[in-house]
Write a sequence for this structure.
């Protein structure tokens, strides 16, 4: 049963600390997305990769957030320094671009709390 | 102070009833649409999809209807069960990027 995995599932940290979230996309998928979900804003797209290349990170605060794909099996989202307003659930999703559909499959999320 | 957040539409139904969840999308050029279900503490889960060249698609107990004239999408769930209780999101796709609706809370009473 192929699925997207994310680590850690929960993270509590103090303001100013660096936070790294990791995602393993489904094997064979060539697109990876990072989303943030809050009660205020709903689901927001932060960054988007295709074939490991960043295509769109316009939704991401560039001064503190960075997203990378060191290899096809790992995507990372870093926040440095973290702030209380970054508290949210961060989802990674993967899909296959070039096929019939653009369906994205979501991981279980990382719940981040910044104190 | 009082917190302000999204006020999600809600739908309450009795077990066994049919449910209809509606969604308005914004981009007339969107070519693909998806319905997701999100249970508490979990990520959105794919339910059913439809391409813009179709107006209806059926799955197991679910049907999606697409009306491009008024940019409206609906999800019909037949014989709704307590396990269907969740937040349901529609998403529109344009060049592979999804834009999500705000979601609808479905509550199924036994």
């Amino acid at each position: 049963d192929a699925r997207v995995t994310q680590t850690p599932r929960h993270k509590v940290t103090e303001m100013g600390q660096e936070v790294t979230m990791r995602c393993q996309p489904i094997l064979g998928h060539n697109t990876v997305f990072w989303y943030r979900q809050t009660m205020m804003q709903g689901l927001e797209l932060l960054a988007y990769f295709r074939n490991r290349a960043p295509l769109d990170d316009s939704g991401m605060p560039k001064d503190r957030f960075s997203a990378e794909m060191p290899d096809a099996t790992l995507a990372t989202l870093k926040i440095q320094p973290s702030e209380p307003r970054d508290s949210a659930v961060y989802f990674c999703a993967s899909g296959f671009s070039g096929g019939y559909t653009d369906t994205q499959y979501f991981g279980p999320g990382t719940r981040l709390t910044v104190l | 102070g009082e917190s302000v957040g999204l006020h999600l539409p809600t739908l309450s139904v009795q077990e066994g009833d049919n449910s209809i969840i509606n969604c308005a999308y914004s981009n007339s050029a969107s070519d693909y649409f998806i319905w997701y279900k999100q249970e508490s503490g979990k990520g959105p889960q794919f339910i059913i999809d439809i391409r813009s060249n179709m107006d209806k698609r059926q799955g197991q107990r679910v049907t999606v209807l697409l009306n491009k004239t008024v940019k409206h999408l609906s999800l019909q769930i037949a014989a709704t069960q307590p396990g269907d209780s969740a937040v349901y999101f529609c998403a529109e796709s344009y060049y592979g990027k999804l834009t999500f609706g705000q979601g609808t809370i479905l509550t199924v009473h036994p």
User: Anything to note?
Assistant: The first strand of chain B starts at residue 10 and ends at 14. Chain B has a mean pLDDT of 92. Strands of chain B lie at 10-14, 19-24, 32-38, 45-51, 56-58, 62-67, 72-77, 86-94, 97-100, 104-109. The CA atoms of residues 11 and 46 of chain B lie 20 Å apart.
